[in-house]
Write a structure and sequence with these properties.
Radius of gyration of chain A: 20 Å
Distance between the termini of chain B: 64 Å
CATH class of the largest domain in chain A: Alpha Beta
Number of helices of chain A: 7
Largest sheet of chain A: 7 strands, antiparallel
Order of helices and strands of chain A: EEEEEHHHHEHEHEEEEEHEE
Number of strands of chain B: 23
Helix content of chain B: 40-55%
Oligomer: heterodimer
Helix content of chain A: 10-25%
Chain lengths: 321, 866
């Protein structure tokens, strides 16, 4: 058994698993445009938006701008249960189209380097979640239990077990799990929708980034660990010589795994990689449902079509800002 | 003995012999099967408890015949007051009469004082706990409460975190289920913090028992219940939100999930008793971060919402998305401080059984007090030690879901699944709680002529009054079903009135009934203001009532024609009516040449009795009851009686009837539906509510008249679409038989023009088309103008279309010849074309009026998910 306390091991070389893509901060200009068109006039609409990016020690924002058409009658900013900015939006005049555009610049610094093999044994993390003795362990409980879109399916723990062998360091085991998902599951945008249940994703071994994030989270929670759903963006165009990442043209999703103390690591099962400066965090919650970019209740209207455009452009490649 | 009640249990058997004699007369034998059951009225040594002696000395001399009469009286009162509830998952049940046992549960003053102190403390405790959970989370930080109790709790409403309700009050109305252990000690079985139900039933029980046992009550110091409801209302008014729209007195509404809720009766009753408007989610909307009630004329602000809708259904924008019961944006309005929701959104979280074992330490931490009323001993299996204890004692403990409120003693059912439960507890301990099994105390209920023991539990209510929490001196006593299984209304249990014997409280009642209570400063909805959803339902009530009448009259004409020996109809005579019935999808197409009268009668029976026949009579009656039921509180009592009697008539026709029985039944339904129309006419004030009913009726009748003229003649029969040729004379005869048109001519001399005049344009006859159109036109002119500009033109458009039809129909009839309707397929006479043109117009106009009305007044009632 390893010690439950963890140091981010800055003095150890990050030689294991995937090396970080870059050690330098990245600056991006991001535009996220959502356009809803309705076949009949909407008399009155209320929405909640998770479109304002979350401020983090690793992420700083400038020039954050929200543009609405038609202009909102009411706009109220709150912080949700998970600490994300959430916007309440009410449009109280008839409209057949709604456009919400968010523009911001962000600087992303790399995740603190860590040595996965030096992280605590996963069982000690599980026990710390079950009997928390400090605030960080208590807070991990926010992400330790089943949620709307991640029900407790017996197949999840079963799928997790080959990665979580006895005494294995949690970051190593978690990385192994997402590597397996990346290898064994097919990225297939037509196989699932937002409403496809997780059990079906597990059975068909197909899905998109939301599904893979949910799956990995469900596997970890199934064995008593804490994992959160992260929604965000990937840089649209890869650095020269690198392949374009899957999920770069829309919002992306991955997961954060609690490794004890204040250590949460990002893992992207869709691309089989650790967190990099290519990933910009928008919000996190227990699953997609907690952080869906737009959710609304309309009065009036018939059918609707939704168009989403995301553009993530590096401002100066590898610049020190 | 440390048990405060044990001493009194043994005492108080002053004249044992006399008491035993009385007991024999009443004929109650307490449950002797177990020593470990406390009996509410008889001590362990078999004598009557002191506080029951006055009651039983009055009841005992009564012969069981008189007791039976009192029971019958109570049943009749309940039925007349329409005191009902619904059992989920029982499609047959519909509404049941509330089960009330006339023998009250008596609680002496000293014992009640202890219960009161205990539940008052508990109300403060749970309110403080809610404040901590949705606020600072001190109890988690200080390791009093494991975070999983909140984070894994499906009733925890994350969007409510940090939202502080007005005055810090979460529990405006709170209920505690108590059970008495064999020792005599009262224990807490469950907490109801979200939308506690039953206070209205408790009041209704009192009003019935108070009348049936008036003599017994006269000499007992029974604490009155009504002051409690005034305190509840005053407490709500004192917590009006800070950022209200107007400086007027606040307006309270009671938000109900609607008529399908098991306790809908109570919602109507409470709204009436508190003098507040009963609304459904569709009646309310949020605009400008404020809640409004949508009426057909304006948006009226709402300040306080007493809700009977569960937390997660209250706001589809922030909670459960697919809820149609709530109000989108409600939580945002709460955040903006423009509305008070009672109980506060999110208060359901502490109902969970998992909290039980933490209350002693929570009481010390949050209140600095020791817990007065114990919970049933419980072990939450999310903790290692507790889980081990439960697994080791599965034989003696009951295992229950951790995150559901449980008050039901369900020992038998749980034992069977013991094996399974161990595995589940091991796999997912956080989801289970082990609890000591408790034998609830027994009290006698009147059952088939004698008193027999049943388990009882007592639900006690508390309100947050202007000066703090107040207990209702009484409560809802619930009894188990005869098998002794569940103490729950949902599983066939019953209820009792609860008499708290308190000289002081009873004296207070005497004075308060003489001195009129001051009218509270409360704004009510102006009497004429009609919520849009209500207008919609009234409109459909009018339409379905008329549609039912028309369908039943048609079936009756067919049956009476075919079975009346004087008329000696054969099937060909019935052909126009059969065609019409097929056109209306009441019967399948019938070819008179191929069928027998017996077959037709069989099909009629099916249309009349088969609940699964989509356009049959039972289906229509269901639609009618549904539409009227959702606005039951808006109908005069007699109107709702007429609807429910009519609705019940449909439930009794599920047997194979002879033609005569069928005819009698059809006559009865016609009579009942006519009675309904008459009651509406005689009892409804001539306001907008009545107008929407009338519009529904007139429109449906107009549509029916057009259908009658079409459906009898233009008949493409079968798949081939070949036109049937029906004798015009028969058609005219059938029309007269069906519409009851007043014709001066003898049936033999029927001609088309006179028939058309009689059923279409006779303006004095309330059955004619022109009468309906005239009515529609004048009702439309009286409807309130909707504030939004475009809506006025919608109503004006509808009125204009009615005007066109009114002009065209008399012209068309005037052009009609006295000749025959035959040869109308080819080379039709021009005058017939004008009749046809009139009908085409009506075919188009009548449904359009319905759509226009719906656009102007109803559709805004319904929100949907983006």
């Amino acid at each position: 058994m390893r010690d439950t306390t963890v140091e981010p091991a800055a003095d150890l070389s990050p030689a294991d698993s995937a090396p970080p893509a870059a050690n330098l901060p990245m600056r991006y200009r991001i535009r996220h445009k959502t356009e809803c068109t309705y076949t009949e006039e909407i008399q009155h609409a209320q929405h909640t938006l998770h479109l304002n990016p979350r401020a983090l020690p690793r992420q700083t924002f400038t020039k954050n701008l929200i543009t609405l058409e038609p202009p909102a009658a009411r706009l109220a900013e709150h912080i949700d249960y998970f600490g994300n900015p959430i916007t309440y939006l009410a449009i109280e005049l008839p409209h057949k189209r709604l456009m919400v555009q968010v523009d911001f610049d962000v600087t992303v610094t790399p995740e603190p380097e860590y040595y996965a093999a030096a992280t605590p044994a996963w069982e000690s993390i599980r026990d710390a979640i079950r009997s928390p003795s400090d605030d960080m362990a208590r807070d991990s409980n926010l992400f330790a239990f089943s949620s709307t879109l991640i029900p407790p399916l017996p197949g999840l723990a079963e799928y997790a077990m080959p990665s979580f062998t006895p005494g294995r360091p949690i970051a190593e085991a978690a990385f192994d799990l997402i590597t397996r998902i990346h290898k064994e599951f097919v990225f297939d945008p037509v196989a699932t929708t937002i409403t496809t249940p997780l059990g079906e994703v597990l059975a068909k071994k197909r899905g998109v980034c939301q599904d893979f994030a949910h799956l990995a989270i469900g596997c970890m929670r199934g064995i008593g660990l804490a994992a959160r759903y992260v929604s965000g963006y990937l840089r649209t165009l890869p650095p020269p010589g690198k392949p374009r990442m899957v999920g770069a043209d829309a919002t992306h999703a991955w997961l954060g795994v609690w490794c004890g103390g204040d250590m949460w690591i990002d893992l992207d099962p869709t691309n089989g990689v650790r967190g990099t400066t290519d990933m910009i965090t928008l919000a996190w919650g227990r699953d997609y449902d907690d952080v869906s970019p737009m959710r609304g209740v309309l009065i009036g209207g018939g059918g609707q079509t939704l168009k989403v455009e995301v553009d993530v452009a590096p401002l100066e490649a590898g610049a020190n800002s | 003995m440390s048990d405060p009640f044990a001493a009194r249990n043994a005492a108080g058997s002053a004249s044992d012999a006399a008491v035993r004699a009385g007991e024999a007369a009443v004929g109650y034998a307490p449950n002797k099967t177990s020593e470990l059951i406390y009996d509410e009225i008889v001590t362990g040594t078999g004598s009557l408890r002191t506080h029951y002696q006055p009651l039983l000395s009055r009841l005992s001399p009564l012969a069981s015949k008189e007791m039976a009469d009192r029971v019958e009286e109570s049943m009749r009162l309940l039925r007349e007051n329409d005191v009902t509830y619904t059992i989920y998952g029982d499609p047959q049940s519909g509404e049941r009469i509330w089960p009330l046992d006339v023998m009250p549960l008596l609680i002496p003053e000293s014992e009640w004082r202890a219960i009161s102190a205990g539940v008052l403390q508990r109300a403060r405790l749970l309110n403080a706990l809610l404040g901590d959970i949705y606020g600072a989370r001190r109890m988690v930080a200080e390791d009093v409460l494991p975070p999983a109790l909140i984070e894994a709790n499906p009733s925890f409403m994350r969007p409510c975190q940090g939202v502080v309700p007005q005055g810090g009050v979460y529990l405006h109305l709170y209920a505690v289920d108590l059970g008495r252990a064999p020792s005599g000690q009262w224990w807490v079985l469950a907490d109801r913090t979200e939308t506690p139900s039953g206070a209205g039933y408790a009041l209704e029980n009192r009003s019935v028992v108070g009348r049936v046992l008036a003599d017994c009550m006269a000499d007992a110091p029974v604490a009155p219940l009504t002051p409690f409801f005034n305190i509840l209302r005053d407490g709500l008014l004192s917590l009006a939100p800070p950022n209200r729209t107007s400086k007027d007195a606040p307006r309270i509404v009671l938000l109900t999930p609607g008529p399908y809720n098991e306790t809908y009766f109570e919602h109507i009753f409470l709204a009436g008793h508190l003098g507040v408007t009963l609304v459904q989610g569709a009646d309310l909307m949020v605009r400008d971060r404020r809640v409004y009630i949508k009426t057909v004329s304006a948006l009226e602000p709402v300040d306080i919402i007493l809700r009977r809708v569960d937390d997660k259904f209250c706001d589809p924008l922030e909670f459960y998305r697919d809820s149609a019961l709530g109000v989108a944006g409600l939580l945002e309005a709460v955040r903006a401080g423009t509305v008070t929701v009672a109980n506060a959104l999110g208060s359901g979280v502490v109902q969970a059984t998992a909290f039980k074992s933490f209350y002693p330490s929570l009481a010390r931490k949050l209140l600095g007090e020791d817990l007065l009323l114990p919970d049933v001993p419980s072990w939450w299996c999310g903790q290692d030690k507790e889980r081990a204890h439960v697994l080791a004692n599965l034989g003696t403990l009951a295992v229950r879901p951790a995150f559901a409120p449980v008050s039901i003693m369900r020992a038998a059912a749980e034992q069977g699944a013991a094996e399974n439960i161990a595995a589940r507890v091991r796999a997912s301990g956080i989801d289970y709680v082990g609890q000591a099994r408790m034998a609830l105390s027994n009290a006698p209920v009147w059952d088939e002529g004698r008193l027999s023991p049943r388990q009882v539990s007592l639900r006690v209510y508390l309100a947050a009054g202007p000066d703090g929490f107040v207990v209702m001196p009484g409560g809802l006593t619930r009894t188990s079903n005869p098998d002794g299984g569940n103490v729950s209304m949902q599983s066939g249990g019953g209820s009792k009135d609860t008499w708290v014997l308190s000289a002081a409280a009873a004296r207070g009642a005497g004075t308060s009934s003489i001195v009129a209570l001051p009218e509270p400063a409360m704004r009510r909805l102006s009497p004429g203001a009609l919520p849009s959803r209500v207008a919609d339902s009234l409109y459909w009530t009018g339409r379905y009532a008329e549609r039912t009448t028309n369908a039943v009259k048609l079936l009756r004409s067919i049956v009476s024609g075919l079975t009346d020996p004087a008329r000696r109809w054969n099937l060909v005579d019935a052909e126009p009516l059969l065609n019409l019935a097929a056109y209306l999808q009441l019967l399948p197409w019938i070819d008179p040449a191929e069928a027998t009268a017996g077959q037709v009668l069989g099909l009629v029976e099916k249309a009349l009795t088969d609940p699964n026949y989509p356009s049959g009579v039972r289906a229509l009656l269901t639609q009618l009851t549904r539409a009227a039921g959702s606005v039951r509180d808006r109908l005069p009592t007699d109107c709702w009686h007429a609807v429910s009697t009519l609705g019940r008539a449909s439930q009794h026709i599920g047997y194979r009837a002879s033609p005569v029985q069928m005819l009698l039944r059809l006559n009865e339904i016609v009579t009942l539906s006519t009675a309904l129309a008459g009651t509406i006419d005689e009892t409804m004030p001539r306001g907008d509510a009545w107008r929407f009913l009338e519009i529904g009726k007139r429109l449906e009748r107009a549509i029916h008249l057009v259908t009658v003229l079409r459906g009898m003649s233009d008949v493409p029969r079968g798949a081939g679409g070949e036109i049937a040729h029906v004798s015009e004379h028969r058609i005219l005869q059938a029309i007269v038989a069906l519409t009851g048109a007043s014709l001066p001519l003898s049936p033999a001399a029927l001609d088309r023009k006179s028939v058309l005049e009689a059923i279409l344009i006779n303006g004095n006859d309330p059955r004619t088309l022109i009468f309906q159109l005239t009515g529609l036109s004048s009702h439309l002119a009286c409807l309130p103008h909707v504030s939004s500009g475009s809506m006025i033109s919608v109503v004006a458009l509808a009125a204009q279309r009615v005007g066109e039809a009114m002009a065209l129909v008399p012209q068309a009839v005037a052009k009609a010849s006295h000749g025959t309707l035959k040869k109308r397929t080819a080379g039709a006479a021009p005058e017939n074309n004008s009749i046809r043109a009139a009908f085409s117009l009506l075919d188009e106009v009548l449904p359009e009026i319905s759509n226009l009305l719906s656009r102007a007044y109803f559709t805004h009632a319904f929100a949907r998910r983006a």
